[in-house]
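W.,

You were right to be curious about this one. When I first looked at the sequence I had no strong expectations either way, so I just let the prediction run and decided to look at it fresh. Below is the sequence, 132 residues in total, followed by the output.
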Amino acid sequence: MLSRPQAGRFYGEIDGSVMTTLIRMGMFKRVSLFDYQAMCKMNSHSVSSAPSAHKKKGDILQPCDTEYPSFVYEPSVKETNSIIKCGRCQKMFVVQQIPESNLLMLVVQADCDCSRQYPPITMQPKEVKYIL
């Protein structure tokens, strides 16, 4: 059962093992979105070496391009289940599409911790670095 702070969060951040397995099984597809007008924090080593008394408080931002990971549900997969082996235990799950809706029901056996083998999948944007 999800705790209150977990409700509404991206499931890959909560349980990387199940989300990784759903991606491998084809239920979700990873898609990259790009923001070509983003603002990124400037690295501290690229900032001027002026005395610290003259530096402004707060982050220095500069224009940049960013990549945002996103995941798209593949509706051709209506239901699936799997067993994830994690060291000395196994985690079972079943996922099923709720008819006439855009909802999925996911039931996971929660007594097996797979976080060492499967890190969380985050949706944090990453700055795109170009090699010139």
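Here's what jumped out at me. The mean pLDDT is 87. And, maybe more interesting for your project: The first helix runs from residue 11 to 14.

Coffee later to discuss?

I.
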